[in-house]
Write a structure and sequence with these properties.
The structure holds 2 protein chains of 2 kinds. Chain A contains 18 helices and 15 strands. By secondary structure, chain A is an alpha+beta fold. The N and C termini of chain B lie far apart (31 Å). The chains are: A alpha+beta, B alpha/beta. Chain B: It holds the Pfam family STAS.
């Protein structure tokens, strides 16, 4: 397959070759005619060479112009202009040369006249065909199927008209020649109304186009006159005369018509071009605003774009935006001539107008766009447009646009600014949501770490000896919980078991729980009585817990040698004790105030120590209120009675199995819904 | 999830609680008591007859004012608590620090 560059190369070679041959053949024919000898060439050969020359040029420009990447109209017109300029300069040079020759016989030499006519012919044909192809490109900008087919008919008809050259018709004598020319020109006229490209020129480009097309018109006129004068002056001696060439005349006529049409249309479009430009700019600004989020712009940049494009769109004198960031910080953006003080003055002036509510109340949506503009008094501005900025259904800021003329903002402007603001707010909203999502993700990660740390605060193994079995577990509703249990061995036969519940839930509860663990390990080693432990723990925690926080705790000291238990209860739910001898369990009720509630002296008056003896197969069950307060779907609590019944039924089992059954029973009771509270249990069974 | 209403009866301020006091609604309870203290009410009655549940956070609110009450000579009495809610106060031992009565009349007589 032939590549475009090959075609271009061939067409150039072919074109040059056919032109040179045309020149030689024409000169030989002339020589033959003058000397009355037959040179063996007919006029037809000259015509064929001329046609080949036209076709080469046509192919060359078709590829050069139509396939060019750029569809910049000014570039295209510039191309036409430059080709025309070159042709004109050469043509002028020929004129000057003639003038220098003056009246010498050389000037009248038929060979020289014909030679220069051929040079002109080549240049004019190049200019005409390049213009023709450029016009084709412009007409087919925004093409439709109908337009393409119409153009094709025209193009084929014009190309077909070169056949006329072979018959040597004369414009003024032969009707078919005449009629075909008129038909072609009418077709060209119909196509010349396709001037959509003009609308896409901006103001400056329109002026440039007018200039370039006017010059093209001048070239065309000059060339036509030039050809015409050759034709009349040297009609007898010209072997090839373009004025009698249907193809050339048709192309001349069409390019001329299109020049006139586009010139007029551009002129008439000049006054409205600023409106069109503005609309185009609005669309581009809108796109900038909507894409700003994808392009990784910051909130500040989005606002800058909003301020810029809004003041541009309504030709505002000055403008400002004030907005509250997610962190509550206020940002103020304003045009150069404004400052914070001036803005305050303007806001004071706004308070005297019908739109004062825009400044005062929280607005959730912009209802009536008519109520966004007002006339200002006592400021250098005369009208104002205020647009509330609403992000996540909350007014976060306001944009003010100012003009120094009365009623400077019409409905159209208000609407477009409203659209801009909406788009910017959506961008900001997305931006904020994205940040929130990232932050949440980070919190989740941190919670995971907190959860890990907290789980490590609960004992991984529990103390025990051959005289009792023990089992404990803790489940939290959130990632981190506030339940605590632990054990400690004081000596060979003395053990401490503790269970606690920190008020509140979640992270703050978890922090307090870690304090509880610290207090427990500091005091437990002192081998204190439960009461002393509680008094000291209360004193310590009173110093560390926040005002509304407290901790409930049950503290058990078990002596496996004497088989005695000493315990205190600081506000914690009463421990369940299973008495094997009576084969049923009961709650160990006594008085005791939670830790951290009474923060001055006197706590010792609110705590008791109880003593208990145990025997084989007795069970102590320590638990937190998450178990008794677990609710089923009807909102009923698990309660103390169910817990007691549960232990009675499961008392024959090992602590591990009791624990497993307890978890199953609880899950069964709450009916699969996630537990609301943390729940923890520590079960000890004596041997 | 809690409705709090204030009523002045003679020189008593009656704060009525309707609903549940959990971690989130305890903020409203805290606000109500804080206002009562700031407005210099010395005799405060808390009507808990419509209080269906109180969490540890709610107890924490009452607890946090105990010392303020002592130092400012304010007396706060709860009345009409359901068995369940009363039990929660008792388990924590708050009944040792705050007076809990059966009825409003009984409570008023304690001042």
């Amino acid at each position: 397959m032939l590549l475009n560059k090959h075609v271009i190369r061939f067409s150039v070679i072919f074109g040059v070759l056919s032109w040179v041959l045309l020149l030689v053949v024409d000169l030989l024919i002339l020589f033959g005619a003058i000397n009355n000898i037959s040179v063996g060439f007919q006029k037809e050969i000259s015509a064929i060479l001329l046609n080949l020359f036209f076709l080469s040029l046509y192919t060359f420009y078709t590829i050069k112009v139509v396939k060019a990447e750029s569809i910049n109209f000014i570039d295209l017109l510039w191309r036409v202009f430059v080709t025309g300029l070159l042709a004109t300069i050469v043509s002028f040079a020929i004129r000057v040369f003639y003038m220098l020759l003056g009246d010498t016989s050389l000037a009248e030499n038929v060979f020289i006249v014909n030679f220069f006519y051929h040079v002109n012919l080549g240049l004019i044909a190049s200019f005409l065909l390049s213009t023709f192809i450029v016009w084709k490109r412009l007409i087919l900008y925004q093409k439709t199927k109908a337009l393409i087919s119409r153009w094709k008919y025209f193009e084929y008809a014009i190309l077909a008209s070169i056949i006329f050259n072979l018959f040597g018709y004369n414009l003024y004598e032969d009707a078919p020649f005449y009629i075909t020319l008129i038909i072609l020109l009418i077709m060209g006229l119909v196509l010349s109304v396709n001037l959509k490209w003009v609308a896409y020129l901006n103001f400056k480009q329109k002026w440039k186009s007018i200039l370039l097309i006017t010059l093209t018109l001048l070239y065309l006129s000059y060339f036509f006159i030039n050809l015409k004068s050759y034709s009349t002056e040297y009609s007898r001696i010209l072997v090839t005369d373009l004025v009698n060439n249907l193809f050339v005349l048709a192309v001349f006529g069409f390019t001329f018509l299109y020049c006139i049409f586009s010139l007029l249309v551009i002129l008439f479009n000049l006054p409205t071009s600023s409106v069109f430009e503005q609309k185009l700019e609005d669309v581009i600004n809108f796109q900038r605003l909507s894409q700003s989020i994808q392009k990784g712009k910051t909130e500040q940049q989005v606002l800058e774009i909003l301020l810029d494009s809004s003041s541009g769109a309504v030709l505002a004198e000055d403008a400002w935006i004030e907005i509250q960031g997610r962190d509550g910080k206020k940002t103020l953006l304003h045009s150069e001539k404004l400052d914070a003080e001036a803005i305050d003055e303007i806001k004071d002036a706004v308070k005297q107008t019908r739109i004062k509510n825009l400044l005062e109340t929280d607005i959730y949506s912009i209802g009536n766009t008519n109520k966004l503009t007002a006339t200002l008094k006592d400021t250098k501005y005369k009208s104002i447009l205020l647009i509330p900025l609403i992000v996540q259904n909350r007014q976060v800021g306001i944009m003010g646009l100012l003009k120094d003329v009365l009623d400077g903002f019409n409905k159209e402007m208000t609407d477009i600014i409203n659209t801009f603001a909406n788009q910017a707010c959506i961008s900001i909203e997305n931006f904020r949501l994205l940040n929130e999502a990232i932050e949440n993700e980070r919190y989740k990660e941190e919670l995971k770490i907190a959860s890990k740390v907290q789980k490590s605060l609960l004992p991984s193994s529990l103390v025990c000896n051959e005289l009792f079995d023990i089992s404990g577990f803790s489940e939290s509703a959130d990632e981190v919980g506030g339940d605590y249990y632990d054990t400690f061995q004081i000596n060979e036969h003395k053990f401490v078991m503790v269970i606690g519940d920190v008020s509140g839930k979640g992270t703050s509860a978890a922090f307090n729980m870690s304090q509880m663990k610290g207090v427990f390990y500091s005091l437990v080693q002192l081998d204190l009585s439960p009461k002393d432990f509680m008094v000291h723990a209360n004193a310590a925690l009173s110093k560390c817990l926040e005002k509304t926080s407290f901790i409930t705790l049950s503290y058990f000291v078990v002596d496996t040698k004497t088989r005695k238990i000493q315990f205190s209860r600081a506000g914690h739910c009463p421990t369940l004790f299973f008495d094997k001898s009576e084969n049923q369990s009961f709650f160990l009720r006594n008085n005791g105030l939670g830790l951290g509630i009474l923060r001055n002296d006197g706590y010792e008056n609110h705590i008791q120590v109880n003593n208990l003896e145990y025997s084989c197969e007795d069970i102590i069950m320590l638990y937190t209120d998450g178990i008794t307060e677990a609710k089923n779907e009807e909102g009923e609590e698990f309660g103390y009675n169910r817990l007691k019944e549960f232990l009675d039924e499961n008392s024959h089992l090992d602590p591990g199995l009791i624990q497993e059954n307890l978890i199953l029973t609880l899950f069964d009771f709450v009916g699969g819904k996630s537990t609301y509270d943390d729940y923890t249990a520590l079960i000890i069974k004596f041997k | 999830m809690i409705d709090i209403s204030n009523n002045i009866e003679d020189d008593f301020l009656v704060i009525s609680l309707d609903g549940e006091v959990d971690a989130s609604s305890s903020i409203h309870l805290d606000k109500a008591i804080d206002e009562a203290v700031k407005n210099n009410h010395k005799k405060i009655l808390v009507d808990g007859s419509k209080l269906s549940y109180i969490s540890s956070a709610g107890l924490g609110v009452f607890m946090s004012y105990i010392q303020d009450f002592d130092s400012q000579g304010i007396k706060l009495i709860l009345f009409g608590l359901s068995e369940k809610v009363k039990n929660v106060f008792q388990i924590l031992g708050l009944d040792q620090l705050l007076k809990i009565c059966e009825s409003k009349e009984e409570a008023k007589q304690l001042f």
